[in-house]
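Me: Here is a favour to ask of a fellow structure person. Could you put it straight underneath, so I can go through it closely?

Assistant:
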Amino acid sequence: MTARAVTDPHVNAQRRILTVLALTQVIGTIGVGVAPSIGVLLAGQVTDDEAWAGLARTSSTLGAALLGLPLGALAARRGRRVALTSGWWIAALGAALLVVAAQGGLVVPLFAGLLLIGAGSAVSLQARFAATDLAAPQHRARSLALVVWVGTAGMVLGPNLGVPGAWLGAVTGLDVFAAAFLIAAACLALAGLLVLILLRPDPLMLARHGERTTPAEAAPAAPAPDAAAEDAVAPAAHGRMRRAAAALRGDPTARLAVLAILTAQVVMVAIMTMTPVHLVHHGGSVTVVGLTISLHIAGMYALAPVVGIVADRLGHRAAIGIGTGVLALSLLVGALRPDALGGIALSLALLGVGWSFVNVSGSALFSGAVPLRSRASAQGGVDALSNLCGAVAAFASGPLLAVSSFSVLAVIGLVVLVPLAVATLRAGRPRPAGAALIS
Protein backbone atom coordinates (compact mmCIF):
# COMPACT_ATOMS: atom_id res chain seq x y z
CA MET A 1 0.00 0.00 0.00
CA THR A 2 2.84 2.39 0.84
CA ALA A 3 4.59 1.78 -2.47
CA ARG A 4 1.34 2.41 -4.32
CA ALA A 5 0.80 5.67 -2.45
CA VAL A 6 4.26 6.83 -3.42
CA THR A 7 4.00 5.71 -7.06
CA ASP A 8 0.54 6.93 -8.07
CA PRO A 9 1.22 10.69 -7.78
CA HIS A 10 4.31 10.21 -9.92
CA VAL A 11 2.32 8.29 -12.53
CA ASN A 12 -0.23 11.11 -12.77
CA ALA A 13 2.49 13.74 -12.85
CA GLN A 14 4.35 11.83 -15.57
CA ARG A 15 1.24 11.79 -17.77
CA ARG A 16 0.79 15.54 -17.41
CA ILE A 17 4.49 16.21 -18.00
CA LEU A 18 4.53 14.07 -21.14
CA THR A 19 1.49 15.95 -22.46
CA VAL A 20 3.13 19.34 -21.90
CA LEU A 21 6.45 18.22 -23.36
CA ALA A 22 4.68 16.78 -26.40
CA LEU A 23 2.72 19.97 -27.06
CA THR A 24 5.68 22.30 -26.72
CA GLN A 25 7.93 19.96 -28.69
CA VAL A 26 5.62 20.16 -31.71
CA ILE A 27 5.43 23.95 -31.60
CA GLY A 28 9.08 24.58 -30.82
CA THR A 29 10.50 22.17 -33.36
CA ILE A 30 8.71 24.01 -36.16
CA GLY A 31 11.11 26.86 -35.43
CA VAL A 32 14.10 24.55 -35.00
CA GLY A 33 13.37 22.66 -38.22
CA VAL A 34 13.85 25.74 -40.38
CA ALA A 35 17.63 25.77 -39.84
CA PRO A 36 18.66 22.59 -41.73
CA SER A 37 17.05 23.70 -45.00
CA ILE A 38 16.20 27.40 -45.18
CA GLY A 39 19.02 28.33 -42.82
CA VAL A 40 21.52 26.50 -45.02
CA LEU A 41 20.25 28.24 -48.16
CA LEU A 42 20.21 31.62 -46.42
CA ALA A 43 23.84 31.13 -45.40
CA GLY A 44 24.82 30.61 -49.02
CA GLN A 45 22.80 33.62 -50.18
CA VAL A 46 24.10 36.09 -47.58
CA THR A 47 27.77 35.07 -47.58
CA ASP A 48 28.07 34.27 -51.31
CA ASP A 49 31.22 32.33 -50.44
CA GLU A 50 31.39 28.55 -49.96
CA ALA A 51 33.91 28.74 -47.10
CA TRP A 52 31.87 31.28 -45.14
CA ALA A 53 28.65 29.48 -46.02
CA GLY A 54 30.12 26.25 -44.64
CA LEU A 55 30.98 27.99 -41.38
CA ALA A 56 27.52 29.53 -41.21
CA ARG A 57 25.91 26.12 -41.79
CA THR A 58 27.65 24.78 -38.69
CA SER A 59 26.68 27.74 -36.52
CA SER A 60 23.33 26.41 -35.32
CA THR A 61 24.89 23.05 -34.41
CA LEU A 62 27.77 24.84 -32.69
CA GLY A 63 25.26 27.02 -30.86
CA ALA A 64 23.47 23.91 -29.60
CA ALA A 65 26.81 22.58 -28.35
CA LEU A 66 27.81 25.81 -26.62
CA LEU A 67 24.41 26.32 -25.03
CA GLY A 68 23.85 22.68 -24.08
CA LEU A 69 26.17 22.86 -21.06
CA PRO A 70 24.77 26.01 -19.43
CA LEU A 71 21.20 24.86 -20.11
CA GLY A 72 22.02 21.50 -18.52
CA ALA A 73 23.52 23.31 -15.52
CA LEU A 74 20.45 25.51 -15.31
CA ALA A 75 18.25 22.41 -15.26
CA ALA A 76 20.40 20.91 -12.48
CA ARG A 77 20.07 24.08 -10.41
CA ARG A 78 16.57 25.37 -11.21
CA GLY A 79 14.79 22.44 -12.84
CA ARG A 80 13.64 21.49 -16.33
CA ARG A 81 10.96 24.19 -16.54
CA VAL A 82 13.35 27.13 -16.22
CA ALA A 83 15.95 25.54 -18.52
CA LEU A 84 13.50 24.63 -21.29
CA THR A 85 11.79 28.04 -21.17
CA SER A 86 15.14 29.83 -21.38
CA GLY A 87 16.30 27.70 -24.29
CA TRP A 88 13.17 28.20 -26.38
CA TRP A 89 13.29 31.97 -25.82
CA ILE A 90 16.99 32.21 -26.69
CA ALA A 91 16.19 30.35 -29.92
CA ALA A 92 13.32 32.78 -30.61
CA LEU A 93 15.78 35.66 -30.30
CA GLY A 94 18.05 33.89 -32.77
CA ALA A 95 15.20 33.47 -35.26
CA ALA A 96 14.38 37.17 -34.92
CA LEU A 97 18.01 38.04 -35.75
CA LEU A 98 17.77 35.82 -38.82
CA VAL A 99 14.80 37.87 -40.00
CA VAL A 100 17.10 40.91 -39.94
CA ALA A 101 19.91 38.95 -41.62
CA ALA A 102 17.67 37.70 -44.43
CA GLN A 103 15.98 41.03 -45.05
CA GLY A 104 19.18 43.05 -45.04
CA GLY A 105 21.69 40.49 -46.29
CA LEU A 106 23.75 41.00 -43.13
CA VAL A 107 26.48 38.56 -42.13
CA VAL A 108 26.83 39.34 -38.40
CA PRO A 109 23.12 38.83 -37.58
CA LEU A 110 23.28 35.68 -39.72
CA PHE A 111 25.99 34.09 -37.59
CA ALA A 112 24.55 35.36 -34.30
CA GLY A 113 21.06 34.20 -35.22
CA LEU A 114 22.16 30.73 -36.26
CA LEU A 115 24.19 30.36 -33.07
CA LEU A 116 21.27 31.36 -30.86
CA ILE A 117 18.66 29.30 -32.72
CA GLY A 118 20.83 26.33 -31.80
CA ALA A 119 19.41 26.68 -28.28
CA GLY A 120 16.20 25.28 -29.71
CA SER A 121 18.01 22.09 -30.70
CA ALA A 122 19.60 21.90 -27.24
CA VAL A 123 16.30 22.13 -25.37
CA SER A 124 14.56 19.84 -27.83
CA LEU A 125 17.15 17.24 -26.89
CA GLN A 126 16.83 18.11 -23.19
CA ALA A 127 13.05 17.63 -23.41
CA ARG A 128 13.53 13.97 -24.34
CA PHE A 129 15.58 13.48 -21.17
CA ALA A 130 12.94 15.34 -19.15
CA ALA A 131 10.48 12.65 -20.24
CA THR A 132 12.57 10.04 -18.40
CA ASP A 133 12.89 11.83 -15.06
CA LEU A 134 9.79 10.15 -13.59
CA ALA A 135 9.51 7.19 -15.97
CA ALA A 136 9.69 3.64 -14.66
CA PRO A 137 12.90 1.89 -15.84
CA GLN A 138 10.95 -0.55 -18.03
CA HIS A 139 9.19 2.37 -19.77
CA ARG A 140 12.11 4.77 -20.00
CA ALA A 141 12.80 4.29 -23.72
CA ARG A 142 9.18 4.59 -24.80
CA SER A 143 8.65 7.75 -22.71
CA LEU A 144 11.73 9.29 -24.31
CA ALA A 145 10.61 8.08 -27.74
CA LEU A 146 7.18 9.66 -27.33
CA VAL A 147 8.69 13.12 -26.97
CA VAL A 148 11.00 12.45 -29.91
CA TRP A 149 8.06 11.21 -31.99
CA VAL A 150 5.76 14.17 -31.46
CA GLY A 151 8.49 16.41 -32.76
CA THR A 152 7.81 14.85 -36.16
CA ALA A 153 5.12 17.36 -37.03
CA GLY A 154 7.25 20.37 -36.16
CA MET A 155 10.45 19.11 -37.72
CA VAL A 156 8.68 18.15 -40.94
CA LEU A 157 6.86 21.48 -41.18
CA GLY A 158 9.93 23.53 -40.30
CA PRO A 159 11.95 22.86 -43.48
CA ASN A 160 8.89 23.84 -45.52
CA LEU A 161 8.28 27.24 -43.92
CA GLY A 162 9.36 28.72 -47.24
CA VAL A 163 5.82 28.03 -48.53
CA PRO A 164 3.93 30.07 -45.87
CA GLY A 165 6.94 32.40 -45.86
CA ALA A 166 6.30 33.23 -49.52
CA TRP A 167 2.67 34.08 -48.72
CA LEU A 168 3.62 36.14 -45.66
CA GLY A 169 6.36 37.85 -47.66
CA ALA A 170 3.87 38.85 -50.33
CA VAL A 171 1.63 40.40 -47.66
CA THR A 172 4.33 42.13 -45.61
CA GLY A 173 7.00 42.81 -48.20
CA LEU A 174 9.54 40.66 -46.37
CA ASP A 175 12.04 38.44 -48.17
CA VAL A 176 10.78 34.83 -48.26
CA PHE A 177 13.58 33.69 -45.95
CA ALA A 178 12.91 36.57 -43.54
CA ALA A 179 9.21 35.71 -43.43
CA ALA A 180 9.98 32.04 -42.77
CA PHE A 181 12.19 32.95 -39.82
CA LEU A 182 9.54 35.33 -38.49
CA ILE A 183 7.13 32.39 -38.30
CA ALA A 184 9.86 30.34 -36.64
CA ALA A 185 10.46 33.07 -34.03
CA ALA A 186 6.77 33.14 -33.12
CA CYS A 187 6.67 29.35 -32.69
CA LEU A 188 9.78 29.28 -30.52
CA ALA A 189 8.54 32.10 -28.29
CA LEU A 190 5.17 30.35 -27.86
CA ALA A 191 6.85 27.07 -26.93
CA GLY A 192 8.80 28.83 -24.17
CA LEU A 193 5.68 30.53 -22.85
CA LEU A 194 3.74 27.27 -22.68
CA VAL A 195 6.55 25.50 -20.83
CA LEU A 196 6.74 28.34 -18.33
CA ILE A 197 3.01 28.19 -17.65
CA LEU A 198 2.23 24.49 -17.92
CA LEU A 199 5.28 22.41 -16.90
CA ARG A 200 4.23 22.02 -13.28
CA PRO A 201 5.34 20.09 -11.31
CA ASP A 202 8.90 20.19 -12.54
CA PRO A 203 9.82 16.56 -13.38
CA LEU A 204 13.45 16.73 -12.28
CA MET A 205 12.68 18.45 -8.99
CA LEU A 206 9.84 16.02 -8.29
CA ALA A 207 12.14 13.06 -9.03
CA ARG A 208 14.74 14.44 -6.62
CA HIS A 209 12.08 14.94 -3.97
CA GLY A 210 11.02 11.34 -4.44
CA GLU A 211 14.63 10.23 -4.07
CA ARG A 212 14.93 12.09 -0.77
CA THR A 213 11.65 10.69 0.59
CA THR A 214 12.43 7.08 -0.43
CA PRO A 215 16.06 6.64 0.62
CA ALA A 216 15.95 2.84 0.51
CA GLU A 217 15.18 2.88 -3.21
CA ALA A 218 17.45 5.78 -4.04
CA ALA A 219 20.51 4.72 -2.07
CA PRO A 220 22.03 2.33 -4.62
CA ALA A 221 22.04 4.99 -7.32
CA ALA A 222 23.11 7.94 -5.14
CA PRO A 223 26.29 9.74 -6.20
CA ALA A 224 29.10 10.67 -3.90
CA PRO A 225 28.28 13.66 -1.63
CA ASP A 226 30.75 15.93 -3.37
CA ALA A 227 29.17 15.25 -6.77
CA ALA A 228 25.73 16.04 -5.42
CA ALA A 229 27.02 19.24 -3.88
CA GLU A 230 28.63 20.25 -7.16
CA ASP A 231 25.31 19.91 -9.00
CA ALA A 232 23.50 21.86 -6.32
CA VAL A 233 25.65 24.92 -6.88
CA ALA A 234 25.86 24.63 -10.68
CA PRO A 235 29.60 24.01 -11.09
CA ALA A 236 31.78 25.33 -13.88
CA ALA A 237 31.55 23.62 -17.25
CA HIS A 238 34.96 21.97 -16.91
CA GLY A 239 33.92 20.47 -13.58
CA ARG A 240 30.79 18.93 -15.08
CA MET A 241 32.70 17.55 -18.04
CA ARG A 242 35.41 16.15 -15.74
CA ARG A 243 32.82 14.36 -13.63
CA ALA A 244 31.09 13.04 -16.74
CA ALA A 245 34.41 11.76 -18.06
CA ALA A 246 35.10 10.01 -14.75
CA ALA A 247 31.70 8.34 -14.88
CA LEU A 248 32.38 7.12 -18.41
CA ARG A 249 35.74 5.63 -17.45
CA GLY A 250 34.12 3.50 -14.79
CA ASP A 251 30.91 2.50 -16.56
CA PRO A 252 30.94 0.49 -19.81
CA THR A 253 27.19 0.95 -20.16
CA ALA A 254 27.53 4.74 -20.18
CA ARG A 255 30.47 4.51 -22.60
CA LEU A 256 28.45 2.48 -25.10
CA ALA A 257 25.53 4.89 -24.76
CA VAL A 258 27.70 7.95 -25.38
CA LEU A 259 29.53 6.33 -28.31
CA ALA A 260 26.15 5.51 -29.86
CA ILE A 261 24.80 9.05 -29.44
CA LEU A 262 27.94 10.70 -30.80
CA THR A 263 28.36 8.36 -33.76
CA ALA A 264 24.76 8.70 -34.89
CA GLN A 265 24.95 12.48 -34.60
CA VAL A 266 28.20 12.78 -36.56
CA VAL A 267 27.03 10.57 -39.43
CA MET A 268 23.57 12.09 -39.60
CA VAL A 269 24.67 15.74 -39.45
CA ALA A 270 27.48 15.34 -41.99
CA ILE A 271 25.20 13.80 -44.61
CA MET A 272 22.07 15.83 -43.86
CA THR A 273 23.90 19.18 -43.84
CA MET A 274 25.36 18.72 -47.30
CA THR A 275 22.30 17.18 -48.94
CA PRO A 276 20.64 20.57 -49.67
CA VAL A 277 23.89 21.79 -51.26
CA HIS A 278 24.21 18.57 -53.28
CA LEU A 279 20.60 18.82 -54.48
CA VAL A 280 20.90 22.49 -55.46
CA HIS A 281 24.08 21.73 -57.42
CA HIS A 282 22.03 19.15 -59.33
CA GLY A 283 19.22 21.59 -60.10
CA GLY A 284 16.97 20.98 -57.10
CA SER A 285 14.61 23.79 -56.05
CA VAL A 286 13.84 25.08 -52.56
CA THR A 287 10.69 22.93 -52.62
CA VAL A 288 12.65 19.79 -53.54
CA VAL A 289 15.18 20.50 -50.80
CA GLY A 290 12.41 21.05 -48.26
CA LEU A 291 10.59 17.84 -49.18
CA THR A 292 13.79 15.77 -49.09
CA ILE A 293 14.79 17.10 -45.68
CA SER A 294 11.22 16.53 -44.48
CA LEU A 295 11.47 12.85 -45.48
CA HIS A 296 14.71 12.63 -43.53
CA ILE A 297 13.18 14.25 -40.46
CA ALA A 298 10.12 12.02 -40.72
CA GLY A 299 12.50 9.07 -40.63
CA MET A 300 14.14 10.51 -37.52
CA TYR A 301 10.92 10.92 -35.58
CA ALA A 302 7.91 9.13 -37.09
CA LEU A 303 8.92 5.63 -35.94
CA ALA A 304 10.16 6.74 -32.52
CA PRO A 305 7.33 4.96 -30.58
CA VAL A 306 8.22 1.70 -32.34
CA VAL A 307 11.88 2.31 -31.53
CA GLY A 308 11.01 2.86 -27.87
CA ILE A 309 9.03 -0.38 -27.67
CA VAL A 310 11.82 -2.32 -29.40
CA ALA A 311 14.42 -0.88 -27.04
CA ASP A 312 12.36 -1.66 -23.94
CA ARG A 313 11.52 -5.20 -25.06
CA LEU A 314 14.66 -6.36 -26.85
CA GLY A 315 17.15 -4.24 -24.94
CA HIS A 316 18.98 -1.05 -25.75
CA ARG A 317 22.03 -2.83 -27.17
CA ALA A 318 19.89 -4.73 -29.69
CA ALA A 319 18.16 -1.51 -30.76
CA ILE A 320 21.52 0.23 -31.16
CA GLY A 321 22.65 -2.66 -33.36
CA ILE A 322 19.53 -2.37 -35.52
CA GLY A 323 20.07 1.35 -35.91
CA THR A 324 23.70 0.90 -36.86
CA GLY A 325 22.65 -1.50 -39.61
CA VAL A 326 20.04 0.91 -40.96
CA LEU A 327 22.59 3.75 -40.98
CA ALA A 328 24.99 1.54 -42.95
CA LEU A 329 22.24 0.72 -45.48
CA SER A 330 21.44 4.43 -45.84
CA LEU A 331 25.06 5.28 -46.57
CA LEU A 332 25.34 2.46 -49.12
CA VAL A 333 22.31 3.81 -50.99
CA GLY A 334 23.77 7.31 -50.92
CA ALA A 335 27.12 6.08 -52.17
CA LEU A 336 25.61 4.05 -55.01
CA ARG A 337 22.82 6.43 -56.12
CA PRO A 338 24.14 9.95 -55.48
CA ASP A 339 22.70 11.54 -58.63
CA ALA A 340 19.17 10.13 -58.44
CA LEU A 341 16.60 12.16 -56.52
CA GLY A 342 14.83 8.96 -55.48
CA GLY A 343 18.09 7.48 -54.24
CA ILE A 344 18.93 10.55 -52.19
CA ALA A 345 15.41 10.69 -50.75
CA LEU A 346 15.58 7.00 -49.76
CA SER A 347 19.07 7.44 -48.31
CA LEU A 348 17.98 10.43 -46.23
CA ALA A 349 14.85 8.66 -44.97
CA LEU A 350 16.88 5.61 -43.90
CA LEU A 351 19.46 7.91 -42.33
CA GLY A 352 16.72 9.35 -40.15
CA VAL A 353 15.40 5.93 -39.13
CA GLY A 354 18.88 4.69 -38.22
CA TRP A 355 19.58 7.83 -36.21
CA SER A 356 16.28 7.33 -34.35
CA PHE A 357 17.12 3.77 -33.30
CA VAL A 358 20.63 4.66 -32.14
CA ASN A 359 19.79 7.98 -30.49
CA VAL A 360 16.64 6.88 -28.64
CA SER A 361 18.23 3.66 -27.39
CA GLY A 362 21.53 5.32 -26.49
CA SER A 363 19.81 8.20 -24.69
CA ALA A 364 17.57 5.87 -22.66
CA LEU A 365 20.57 3.71 -21.80
CA PHE A 366 22.53 6.76 -20.65
CA SER A 367 19.66 8.08 -18.52
CA GLY A 368 19.51 4.79 -16.65
CA ALA A 369 23.28 4.65 -16.16
CA VAL A 370 23.70 8.10 -14.59
CA PRO A 371 22.76 8.79 -10.93
CA LEU A 372 19.78 11.12 -10.50
CA ARG A 373 21.72 13.84 -8.67
CA SER A 374 24.16 14.37 -11.52
CA ARG A 375 21.81 13.35 -14.33
CA ALA A 376 20.81 16.78 -15.67
CA SER A 377 24.38 18.06 -15.85
CA ALA A 378 25.64 14.81 -17.38
CA GLN A 379 22.84 14.84 -19.97
CA GLY A 380 23.61 18.44 -20.81
CA GLY A 381 27.27 17.55 -21.19
CA VAL A 382 26.54 14.64 -23.52
CA ASP A 383 24.17 16.72 -25.62
CA ALA A 384 26.74 19.51 -25.80
CA LEU A 385 29.43 17.04 -26.87
CA SER A 386 27.03 15.51 -29.39
CA ASN A 387 26.28 18.89 -30.92
CA LEU A 388 29.95 19.85 -30.91
CA CYS A 389 30.83 16.67 -32.80
CA GLY A 390 27.94 17.41 -35.15
CA ALA A 391 29.26 20.92 -35.74
CA VAL A 392 32.71 19.59 -36.57
CA ALA A 393 31.16 17.01 -38.91
CA ALA A 394 29.04 19.65 -40.63
CA PHE A 395 32.01 21.96 -41.07
CA ALA A 396 34.25 19.18 -42.40
CA SER A 397 31.61 17.81 -44.76
CA GLY A 398 31.59 20.99 -46.87
CA PRO A 399 35.24 20.85 -47.96
CA LEU A 400 35.00 17.06 -48.34
CA LEU A 401 32.07 17.42 -50.72
CA ALA A 402 33.83 20.22 -52.60
CA VAL A 403 36.98 18.18 -53.26
CA SER A 404 35.35 14.78 -53.73
CA SER A 405 31.71 13.74 -54.10
CA PHE A 406 28.57 12.79 -52.20
CA SER A 407 29.51 9.13 -52.67
CA VAL A 408 32.87 9.65 -50.96
CA LEU A 409 31.15 11.44 -48.09
CA ALA A 410 28.84 8.44 -47.65
CA VAL A 411 31.78 6.01 -47.66
CA ILE A 412 33.52 8.06 -44.95
CA GLY A 413 30.31 7.80 -42.93
CA LEU A 414 30.50 4.01 -43.20
CA VAL A 415 34.02 4.08 -41.79
CA VAL A 416 32.84 6.20 -38.85
CA LEU A 417 30.23 3.55 -38.01
CA VAL A 418 32.81 0.78 -37.54
CA PRO A 419 33.80 1.52 -33.88
CA LEU A 420 30.14 1.61 -32.81
CA ALA A 421 29.42 -1.68 -34.57
CA VAL A 422 32.41 -3.31 -32.85
CA ALA A 423 31.52 -1.89 -29.42
CA THR A 424 27.90 -3.03 -29.74
CA LEU A 425 28.94 -6.56 -30.66
CA ARG A 426 31.37 -6.68 -27.74
CA ALA A 427 28.80 -5.53 -25.18
CA GLY A 428 27.09 -8.06 -22.94
CA ARG A 429 24.08 -10.05 -24.09
CA PRO A 430 20.99 -7.85 -24.44
CA ARG A 431 18.33 -8.16 -21.78
CA PRO A 432 15.06 -6.27 -21.23
CA ALA A 433 15.66 -2.64 -20.22
CA GLY A 434 14.07 -3.11 -16.81
CA ALA A 435 16.31 -6.05 -15.97
CA ALA A 436 19.74 -4.46 -16.31
CA LEU A 437 21.35 -1.26 -17.39
CA ILE A 438 23.51 -2.92 -20.03
CA SER A 439 20.38 -3.80 -21.95
User: Anything to note?
Assistant: The chain has a mean pLDDT of 81. The first helix runs from residue 2 to 32. The radius of gyration is 21 Å. The chain is about 85% helix and 0% strand.
